[in-house]
Amino acid sequence: MSTLLKVIAYYSGKLINISDIGNKIDLNLNTVKTYIALLEQLFLVEQLPAWHSNEYKRLVKTPKIHVLDTGLICALRNLNQEKLKLEPEKLGSLVETFVYNELKKQANFSDENISFYHYRDKDKVEIDIIIEDSNGEYIAIEVKATASLSSKDLTGLKRFKSITQEKFKIGIVLYDGDHTTAFGENLFAVPLAALWS
Questions:
Q1: What pLDDT score was predicted for residue 61?
Q2: What 3-state class would DSSP assign to 67?
Q3: What is the rounded CA–CA span in Å between residue 98 and residue 163?
Q4: What is the Cα–Cα distance from 3 to 25, expressed in whole angstroms?
Q5: Packing angle between helix 2-11 and helix 29-41, nearest 10 degrees?
Q6: Is residue 149 scored above 90 in pLDDT?
Q7: How far apart are CA 31 and CA 169, in angstroms?
Q8: Whole-structure pTM value
Q9: Are 130 and 59 in contact (CB under 8 A)?
Q10: 7-25: string of b/e by CB count within 10 Å (b at 16+)?
Q11: Where are the alpha helices (DSSP H) in the chain?
Q12: How far is residue 167 CA from its own chain's centroid?
């Protein structure tokens, strides 16, 4: 199981591929599923289900997996500040997992039922985190470990807004910048630091 957890640390923030994980550590599909279920019961990992809609058929239904402690991910992947500076591409999924974990913690303080999903369609358009409130309304959050953004970074949010229409409350790109910027109606770029303010 410790070897499995180490492999999952490389998948954190990504679509889970149980067959691929099993092949990497020579375990069959059912054993991997059983071990992942045990790791979930130990609050070490969590699967983030894919958002789905009966009206919109072009969706990928594979869940993502997140390790619930980014410090543990860094330890298992032997990552430190110097390595992340040399290989900044490794920071993206790490920041996504960190944001997901922070939002889940904050959701525990809410009195209403809040559900978490991710969005990905057959065109590979995706959103890292979808939050659904008890009224069936959505907050869509894309996480970028960069200080500069382009209109391309809003592609997933715009598509999700067009699908959910009046149920779409707000779309946010959380990024490593220092100011909030509007990108149209209910679409914003917001600094990561806003998670704590």
A1: 93
A2: strand
A3: 27
A4: 7
A5: 90
A6: no
A7: 41
A8: 0.92
A9: no
A10: bbbbbbbeebebeebbebe
A11: 2-11, 18-25, 29-41, 70-77, 81-86, 91-107, 155-164
A12: 21
